Amino acid sequence: MGGQQTIDRILASGGSAASLALNETVVRAKLERDLLEMELQDLYAQACTVRLDEDAARLNREIRELREAVRHFLAEWSAHVAWEQSELFPCAAWCLAEEPSLFASMKEDYRRAERFVRDFLHAMEQAPLPVSREQAKKLAAGLLQAYACLKNRLREEEEIVMSLEDRVNVFRE
Prior knowledge:
- The chain is mainly alpha-helical.
- Helix content is 88%, strand content 0%.
- The model has no long low-confidence stretch (mean pLDDT 86).
- The protein has a single domain, classed as Four Helix Bundle (Hemerythrin (Met), subunit A) (Up-down Bundle).
- The relative contact order is 0.16.
- Helix 1 (3-13) packs parallel to helix 3 and helix 3 runs parallel beside helix 5.
- It comes from Cohnella nanjingensis.
């Protein structure tokens, strides 16, 4: 359901139904954010392992596993961002009376992180096998930069969701 549809449903439904509709958005946002944060933490741990590993055979296995984990995470993250843009952000802009420009920095964090992730994936496709320790460290460093951007992005999202949750509680009172 799109953001405008959620807003229309809130407007048309009155207090308890409005609270329910807004609560559905909050619950989904929190659930997806928590899952993405766990996956992101796993990617961080894998990238750190790659940066520190000295054994060439193990390093190449780990970096291939990291590549697959990054691909999976990027697909999950992209789906979440699409939902945010169609549902969460419009709902938050309406419910919190915030300007859509509030979300501009979040979008920029995502674009910056996505660039680091796509650079990693592209470099992995181009890298000769086996990957050298120096190349693996360089590849993992870009993912650590993406991690920093996405952690900030998730923190900003958490603040928005907490504000929406406060609004849900107002509807319930």
